[in-house]
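Replying to the earlier thread about multi-chain prediction with a worked example.

Input:
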Amino acid sequence: MKTAVLGVSSSKFGELWDVSPRTLVSQTANEVLKASQLSIADIDAIYVGNMLSGILGNQENLGSFFAEELGANCAAFKVEGACASGGLAFHNAYLGIKSGAYDRVLVIGVEKMTDHKPDEVASGLMGAGSEEERVSGITFPGLYAIMARAYINKYKIPKEYLASVAVKNHYHGSLNPKAQFQRAITIEKALQSTMISDPLTLLDCSPISDGASAAVLVNEKNVGGKNKPVWVIGSGVATDSLGLSKRDDITSLKSARLAAIKAYKQANVKPADIDIAEVHDCFTIAEIMALEDLGFYQKGKSGKAIFEEKLTLGRSKELVVNTSGGLKACGHPVGATGVKQIVEVVEQLRGKADKRQVEDVRIGLTHNVGGSGAVAVVNIFKRAKDQ
Amino acid sequence: MKTAVLGVSSSKFGELWDVSPRTLVSQTANEVLKASQLSIADIDAIYVGNMLSGILGNQENLGSFFAEELGANCAAFKVEGACASGGLAFHNAYLGIKSGAYDRVLVIGVEKMTDHKPDEVASGLMGAGSEEERVSGITFPGLYAIMARAYINKYKIPKEYLASVAVKNHYHGSLNPKAQFQRAITIEKALQSTMISDPLTLLDCSPISDGASAAVLVNEKNVGGKNKPVWVIGSGVATDSLGLSKRDDITSLKSARLAAIKAYKQANVKPADIDIAEVHDCFTIAEIMALEDLGFYQKGKSGKAIFEEKLTLGRSKELVVNTSGGLKACGHPVGATGVKQIVEVVEQLRGKADKRQVEDVRIGLTHNVGGSGAVAVVNIFKRAKDQ
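Result:
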């Protein structure tokens, strides 16, 4: 059964202190239903991607929670895989359609983080790490700093290459009215920002954010209406150890490489066929590794390409990466991120990305990672011919 | 794509203070792989059903956590829907096979509850309730007591009918070496046990438990080996409000009725075709409602049938319910329960249930509920002809 994305929608990402998770999801879901020309009664199943509702909100029946809020009695599930929860919810929603069990599915990614104390959030996020890492007191900036050091030592790249990821994504974020940070930065500013965990400075790190994103998936019999379908042509998931200490190589994510192989094979496309990609830049080093894990560059080579603005909107003729601003500038409400990536790719494939629009995009990819690489999901999308 | 259960396995249920969740799952998963004549490398995806790892254990990447423990790099997900998490994980694993994305899938249900303080567990479990219920301080025995009172008032049944659910399920549990409580009780003992929340006494309530259960699902191309397949012929999920106050009727669960309609339709069977059922008897009143919601009895009629031992092993010629001992006597490690129900039904359909074996079983059903009925999943299984 061929599967298409019909409608997509995202809330503003940022510090949304004036809305509850309930309101945030309700607004976003109603927008996506309207965009899909459907009502909630048309939906067969709701897949919610979320990581922290249990730890931070003591709420562990989140599928039903949002089904009730939306006035539905349909099937509902929460799918959890740390910061990849949104992408994994989408993957299972896609399988729900492909199986023939469901005709029309609503995927919601949501996280509400900024209402909580920073140490509670940091502790909650370490729920995605290994036990050894958690008890040692390390947090994610430290884990990615270890990977950044190993990468810099191995491939001898200057710190400017890391900073250039932030510069590119902040530039893209400056064009995105939904982004948490809508301002461009310079390499100098990135390098001079507060040191968080050497070599990562503040502007190497994605923020703590609130936000919700949603998509409606349908089978081929249910395409139609004002939105041309965007076809899902591949979706792959793979895992690796939770902790860094058990990996052969910490300058690359095995989970992402394996997930990409599956997705490319299903989609029958090569990395060179991809026109746009939203990748999981929770830290700048993560985007550098992602571009290599996804086969766009050889190991050690992607940083220079980013520095030379080869992946920047308006500069690239081949591949533009993180037009939404990425996790870095658009924000990273962890359960929402994987769905927001899909929202951006679908809008680009439809030519609806306004100031961020990349010319003549045909195939787009999303890359969503949980923890420091314990799980990764890669989805590939293709626009309908007459879009 | 036709889907079959190949192997099943459960740990002992009870207070398992000497094993970690890691060991519990590792042992159970290795048993189920052995029973399925597969190795972990043959598995394409792992679906974990669990509710409380985040709230009680600050662990929120549970799919990857167990994939690592088992030495896998395959896809892995946690599916959460309160006490229905196990059944919902199974449902999504089933759709994963049906979609053609996965050939062989491992489903694990697990919960480790008795290591934690009772008030922490009670608070965590209320993560499945509505906000109004949570802030009012009510817990699940109170919610089910409200339903029991409403039911008793409406249908004028004696408390002996409730007690007879416990008597039946404790009798079945006495025959199950994996059950938490392996002792028969009497109606008098049940009625005289400590009052928990009027009209529910201690023996109307399922216990707090630890345990893990697992099943391997395969598509029709991968059946074979020593185990004859048990076919999955229907799987339906539906939802209702989290809280009781928003429901039209609190003497029946709408989510269960809707889920059953879907499952029966898919399976093309009627309630009268079901030979055995494992139903969600978190409290005795829940089994009484379940038997009516599933269409086995008219409203108000099931309690008398249970009291008259019409659903008891060795007495019934038509339908035997909760041969495992149910949640009541086998125990209720919440994320494991939905998978344990499937383990029991599959073993019965294979004639491998030892002292609990029901004669000539052909079709079995599982009914797994989250919260006080916010979500329900009904699965239907059929034995291969030559089993």
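The mean pLDDT of chain B is 96.

Feel free to reuse this layout for your own posts.
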